[in-house]
Fold:
Amino acid sequence: MSALSIQAHQLSKTFGHFVAVKDLSLEVQPGEIFGFLGANGAGKTTAMRMLCGLLKPSFGHAMVAGFNIATQTEQVKKNIGYMSQKFSIYDDLTLKENIQLFSTIYGLKSAQTQERMKQLASQFGLENKLKSLVSTLPLGWKQKLAFSLAIIHQPRIVFLDEPTSGVDPITRRQFWEMISDTAKAGTTVFVSTHYMDEAEYCDRVSIMVDGQIQVLDTPQKIREQFSAPTMDDVFSLLARKKP
Amino acid sequence: MVYIENLSKNFGALQALSNIHLHIKPKQLFGLIGPDGAGKSTLFEILATLRLPSSGKATIHGFDLQSKAKQIRKTIGFMPGQFSLYPDLSILENIQFFAHVYGVHFDESSPLTRDIWQHIAPFKHRPAGKLSGGMKQKLALCCALAHRPTLLLLDEPTTGVDPVSRKEFWEMLQSLKLHNITTLVSTPYMDEAQLCECIALIQNGKILAVNSPSGIQAQFKFHLFGVQSAHANTLLKPLRQFEKTQHCFAFGKTLHLTVKDASVSENDIVEYLKTQGHEHVEVWRMQAGIEDCFIELMHSENHERS
Structure:
């Protein structure tokens, strides 16, 4: 078993003649915040779906949380968390019921569920809201809940797909503070975003263009490499127009 | 062009919009800036005559929103937040369909849509469902312009679109002014505010401020400092505990520190951080951006409520 959280070697995915992801190789350390950037259609979602064990690679291989993404998909899924842009939470359930539901899905025992609920509620300040219907809560709370659900089973890695789209500037920053705390506690964070300032909060970032990783390093080194003042400038230099 | 007076909308107990006043001048590129759930889409749906306000009134081109909906519909182009084109029709078929609905023919050489058309024409036979996010938005814009409206209502056209495609899209919006088009566009991306002539910041159904982007920045009431060090994230906590601090947030690699007290200097902050064990810190005064202003207005709004 590998100590790395993610180890991908020349991972590729083709759909017919279309190469969606080509030779993706990367290694992510435990507790690292890894930013996964790229233009629309660059292949980010396809790559993330492969790493989550939802899509079989055409070539190459990868180990996620110590499991092979092609042959051990069930173990991969048990050891990772996933939060999508659209937060898959149930609006017509309370926060508590959502937590109970997801705990059950991940096979947590009743006592474990109680303990995790307590931990997460105090960590993210959800205590007073546990009995509220999700539909009555502002977006920021829903986002906190969605993140709590993604890490309810204490996964080794959590995948976040554009988690901050459309939230207000304060909530967006509070969310990143939450991500930092989670990473400090040892969970690996693999995150995609369209906010280039958020790339600076990552330990390392990669920028994908037309299915291939064009650059992978710390934000500072990438900026230096391109002599660009911000990551936004780097992104503009790299990301080409594509239908 | 657009007059909105004291407009409110509630859905049961939920107050989606409260007492909105806005005036959009002809040919203006007007931005409605705010997060999800602020009420932006509700306002768009009311202006597009798809919903009725609970109270208040609005006119477009002098036509009353409630009694002259038919006239209004002929003059507006509406691009809803949800992608609403036909995924199994090609680019060209979608545009022709929308033009046909309005009883006009799509002319590829029409000056109004020529630039946008050039971007998407190479893929005109591709089904709309198979386009990338940026391309879909360009197509949707082209469809909204097919009947040559004079007011364009664009609800979050760039949400989820990558930064490069967003820039291209905004360049298109700016060029539309040459064709006497008035545009009301909403966005959750604060950096896009700078590209509008006039902006309204909206949160929880209320307009927090209306002005030009530079006007909004000039209204920033407090004093802003940028703070940087090799380990900026470790400074967040001590800076929030600094007695002069109003609030402190990370903006990429820089921390933005807001203080109320005009007498606080760069050196005061450096010295305070030294007492907390943080050396080699860079501090400078800076001008507030739109996002700083939004955070500030959100705070004072929350303060008033509590």
